[in-house]
Design brief:
By secondary structure, this protein is of the alpha+beta class. The protein is built from seven helices and twelve strands. The protein has a domain of about 120 residues: Lipoprotein like domain (Double Stranded RNA Binding Domain). α3 packs antiparallel against α4 and α4 runs antiparallel to α5.
C-alpha cells in the first residue's frame, strides 16, 4: 500500500511538470506586442508602433518604419473640400478668396512627412528564441509644438517674399515671387496636415489659397512669343509655346505685352560617312524675359535620323516643338521660384 501511494504521488508530480511545461510562452510576453497602446502610453497622448528584428537596432528601425507608415497613411487621407470657397474682386482688381472648407477622409494625398520628429524607444523585449521587439512612441502634443516652431519660421520667410512681391512693378516678377511663396506654403501645409493627424483637430489651409492667387495673377499677365526660325518650324513652335503658356493660365499677345518669350530654332542637315541614314541636328533656345530681367534660359541641341534628309529635318522640327517645348516648361516651373 505504501508503494502504491508513492507511485501515485510520483505520477501526479510528473503530470504537474508536464502541465507546467505546456503553458504557452505568450503569457510571459508584454501586452504591447499585440496592442501598442496601454495605460502608460495611451492612444490619446501618443502615436505608437511596434517592430521586430534579430538585433535591438533592427527592431527599433522596423518600429520607426512602421510608425512612419501609420503616420503617413493618416496624413495622406487628409483632403480639403473647397466647393464652398468664394472669391471677390475689389476696385483695384485684387482677388480675395474666402474658404469655408471641411476636412474629410478620402484617401487623397495632400502631403507626406519625410521624417518623424520626436519618436522615442519606450519598450524593448526579447523572446525565448532571441527575437527582439521594440516599441516606439511619439508624443502628440510635444511633436506638434516642434512643428509649430517650423511653421512660424516658414511664415517669416513667406512674409519677406511677399514684401518683395508687393514692391515689384513687373507682373512677371510678382508671379516669380509668388511661386517662391507657394513652395514655402506647401511645406507649411505639410506640417499642418501632420499636426492635424497628431492632435486630431482641423488645421488652417494655407496652400490652396496661394495656389488660387497664383492662378489669378497669371491670368493678368500677357506674354508675347517671338520665334526666329524657318517658316514651317516657326508656326509649330509658336503654337506649342503659346499653348504651354495658356495651360499655365497666362495670356498670350502682341506688342502691348511687357513680358516676352524669345525663341530661336536652327536646323542643319548632317551626312555621316558609311551611314545609310541622313541626320539633322537642331538647336532650340528660349528665354523668358520680364522688365529688365531674364527669368528662364533654356537651350537644347539634338540629332534626329531618317532615311531621307527631308524626313530627318521634319523629325527635328517635331522634336523641338514637342519634347523641346515640354522641357522648357518643366525647367520654367522648377526654377522660377528659385529666382526670389
Amino acid at each position: 500500500m505504501s508503494m502504491l501511494k508513492k507511485l501515485t504521488f510520483l505520477i501526479l508530480m510528473v503530470a504537474m511538470l508536464v502541465s507546467c511545461a505546456s503553458v504557452p510562452q505568450g503569457k510571459g510576453q508584454p501586452s504591447w506586442l499585440d496592442n501598442p497602446y496601454d495605460k502608460a502610453f495611451d492612444e490619446a497622448t501618443y502615436l505608437c508602433a511596434v517592430g521586430s528584428g534579430s538585433t535591438r537596432q533592427r527592431a527599433v528601425d522596423a518600429a520607426l518604419s512602421s510608425l512612419s507608415q501609420v503616420f503617413n497613411s493618416q496624413v495622406k487621407s487628409i483632403t480639403e473640400v473647397t466647393s464652398l470657397s468664394t472669391s471677390a474682386t475689389d476696385m483695384q482688381g485684387n482677388v480675395t478668396f474666402t474658404d469655408a472648407s471641411e476636412m474629410v477622409e478620402m484617401g487623397t494625398v495632400t502631403s507626406q512627412t519625410d521624417q518623424i520628429i520626436g519618436a522615442e524607444v519606450v519598450s524593448v523585449h526579447t523572446d525565448d528564441l532571441g527575437r527582439v521587439y521594440a516599441r516606439v512612441a511619439l508624443h502628440r502634443k510635444r511633436t506638434a509644438d516642434l512643428y509649430q516652431n517650423q511653421i512660424r519660421e516658414l511664415a517669416t520667410s513667406i512674409a519677406q517674399q511677399r514684401m518683395s512681391l508687393a514692391k515689384s512693378p513687373d507682373p512677371l516678377r510678382q508671379y516669380v515671387a509668388l511661386l517662391g511663396v507657394r513652395d514655402l506654403a506647401r511645406q507649411q501645409q505639410s506640417l499642418l496636415d501632420q499636426i492635424q493627424v497628431l492632435l486630431k483637430q482641423p488645421q488652417q489651409q494655407v496652400f490652396a489659397p496661394i495656389q488660387r492667387e497664383l492662378t489669378s495673377l497669371a491670368q493678368a499677365i500677357t506674354i508675347q512669343v517671338l520665334v526666329d526660325a524657318d517658316e514651317k518650324s516657326s508656326t509649330a513652335l509658336q503654337s506649342s509655346f503659346e499653348k504651354g503658356l495658356q495651360n499655365l493660365g497666362f495670356q498670350v499677345g502682341g506688342d502691348q505685352a511687357v513680358s516676352l518669350l524669345q525663341v530661336t530654332y536652327r536646323v542643319e542637315p548632317i551626312v555621316l560617312a558609311d551611314s545609310p541614314y541622313r541626320y539633322a541636328r537642331y538647336v532650340l533656345t528660349a528665354q523668358l524675359k520680364g522688365v529688365g530681367a531674364t527669368y528662364v534660359s533654356y537651350e537644347k541641341s539634338e540629332r534626329e535620323a531618317a532615311m531621307a534628309e527631308s524626313d530627318a529635318v521634319a523629325r527635328a522640327s517635331r522634336a523641338a516643338a514637342g519634347s523641346g517645348v515640354d522641357e522648357f516648361f518643366t525647367l520654367m516651373l522648377s526654377t522660377l521660384g528659385d529666382e526670389t
